[in-house]
């Protein structure tokens, strides 16, 4: 529900603009208000889960998200919609930030944890892929309000299920990590970093963007200094000492910059070059969603148990690189069956990449730190995705000479080559940085450890 909401809005934006009289700036903030709140609060929300109890934070986030969805659906003015979208992002951050932490503590046995992470990746892939399809269907069949109102029954069912199924956990208490200054620094720095990235579509990469980026880096640097000196830090720096943890976050930053920009660029290619409408574009992306879902739910866990997370990660990245290389040759008069379907099927490699990255990114998380490690992992995911879309869109625009279909295709080709380069960097980093985790049997040579939740378990 929460991942889907990041993309479902895009298809309905023209209807919102007509219904509410939104200007171009207001229309941008319908999307960016959610993204900034969501991406900026993930790390703080993850730590709150450690301190106050993950189930409590999870259910609170669902409640905030659901209520904000109702306000969005009932909005009759641009200001009400944008404000409610920001609150939606807050609820989404509270819920998403602690989800991986709960998996870490609930599943202590490696095989069960790997299956849980694969299911987690499956839901994320389905949510991200179906957003545009569902947004188009609801907007055309009913109206744009229903892309938000559909969250009410889903949120209610989720909250009730969480209270009935998830064990209650107390958390370590605010006294164990109530670093107010650190919280202010990381939240302000993360929000400013996400804002800096998303505003490049309107303002470009000039002096304004560089100044904002420098401010974000200064705030985040201040946060790191604060964590190194605080008696009870919000994010103990020990969580980043593990080579697999910081390596997986770095690789995710690079890889998701390529993968999320791929989704956007391919959609633009379909609509601007092949002249697909919004519904046709969403349906054309479905084979990728199905491939990712099948691989993540039925294949990834078995392969990770057998060959290890690092090996499966590299395999998935190779498949995705092959898909991106196919994209660099898509023609102006491309056909779905011959030019797009093969790369959609190869995109099933994402179903191998995310469970592997998630397991590695959460490795070494102690029970008391699982929430903040989850928050870090989710934060790098959001920043990587936003940065990739902004950067590759700028690359495509800079290499497009005119509005013709031929010129647009040329610009997209260059962006696809850049994406392929990012995936290549991800493969190199995976082989150079990630370490094989020893286990009791050769078959589990670099699988996730089975000892305790403290050693390991968003995708």
UniProtKB/TrEMBL annotation:
Entry coiled-coil feature ranges: none
Transmembrane segments: 26-45, 57-80, 86-107, 119-138, 144-166, 178-198, 204-225, 246-270, 282-304, 311-328, 340-362, 383-400, 412-434
Major facilitator superfamily (MFS) profile domain residues: 1-438
CDD domains with a match to the protein in the record: MFS_MMR_MDR_like
Principal cellular location given in the protein's record: membrane
Pfam families found in the cross-reference section: MFS_1
Subcellular location: Cell membrane
InterPro entries per UniProt: MFS, MFS_dom, MFS_trans_sf
Keywords: Cell membrane, Membrane, Transmembrane, Transmembrane helix, Transport
Domain of life: Bacteria
GO cellular component terms, semicolon-separated: plasma membrane
UniProt GO molecular function: transmembrane transporter activity
Topology of the protein relative to the lipid bilayer: Multi-pass membrane protein
PROSITE patterns: MFS
The name this protein goes by in its record: MFS transporter
Organism listed in the record: Actinomadura logoneensis
């Amino acid at each position: 529900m929460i991942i889907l909401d990041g993309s479902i809005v895009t298809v309905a934006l023209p209807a919102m603009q007509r219904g509410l009289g939104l200007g171009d700036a207001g229309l941008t903030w319908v999307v960016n208000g959610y993204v900034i709140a969501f991406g900026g609060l993930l790390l703080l929300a993850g730590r709150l889960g450690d301190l106050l109890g993950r189930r409590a934070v999870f259910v609170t986030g669902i409640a905030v998200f659901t209520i904000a969805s109702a306000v969005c659906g009932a909005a009759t003015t641009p200001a009400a919609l944008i404000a409610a979208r920001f609150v939606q992002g807050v609820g989404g951050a509270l819920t998403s930030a602690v989800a991986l932490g709960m998996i870490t503590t609930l599943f202590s046995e490696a095989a069960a944890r790997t299956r849980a992470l694969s299911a987690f990746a499956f839901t994320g892939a389905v949510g991200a892929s179906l957003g545009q399809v569902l947004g188009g269907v609801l907007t055309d069949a009913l109206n744009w309000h229903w892309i938000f109102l559909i969250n009410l029954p889903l949120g209610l069912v989720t909250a009730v299920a969480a209270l009935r199924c998830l064990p209650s956990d107390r958390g370590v208490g605010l006294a164990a990590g109530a670093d107010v200054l650190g919280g202010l620094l990381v939240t302000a720095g993360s929000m400013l970093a996400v804002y800096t990235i998303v505003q490049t579509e309107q303002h470009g990469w000039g002096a304004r963007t560089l100044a904002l980026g420098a401010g974000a880096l200064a705030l985040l640097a201040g946060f790191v200094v604060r964590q190194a000196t605080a008696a009870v830090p919000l994010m103990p720096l020990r969580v980043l000492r593990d080579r697999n943890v910081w390596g997986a976050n770095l690789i995710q930053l690079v890889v998701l910059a390529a993968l999320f920009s791929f989704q956007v660029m391919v959609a633009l290619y379909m609509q601007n070059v092949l002249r697909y409408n919004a519904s046709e574009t969403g349906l054309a992306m479905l084979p990728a969603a199905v491939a990712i879902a099948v691989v993540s739910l039925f294949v990834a866990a078995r392969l990770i148990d057998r060959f290890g997370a690092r090996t499966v990660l590299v395999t998935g990245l190779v498949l995705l690189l092959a898909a991106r290389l196919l994209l660099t040759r898509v023609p102006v008069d491309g056909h779905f069956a011959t030019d797009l379907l093969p790369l959609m099927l190869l995109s099933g490699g994402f179903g191998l990449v995310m469970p592997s990255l998630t397991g590695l990114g959460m490795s070494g998380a102690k029970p008391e730190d699982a929430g903040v490690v989850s928050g870090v992992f989710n934060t790098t995911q959001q920043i990587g995705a936003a940065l990739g879309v902004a950067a590759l869109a700028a690359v495509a625009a800079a290499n497009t000479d005119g509005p013709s279909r031929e010129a647009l295709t040329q610009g997209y080709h260059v962006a696809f080559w850049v994406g392929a380069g990012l995936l290549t960097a991800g493969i190199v980093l995976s082989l150079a940085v990630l370490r094989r985790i020893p286990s009791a049997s050769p078959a589990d040579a670099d699988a996730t450890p089975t000892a305790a939740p403290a050693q390991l378990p968003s995708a």
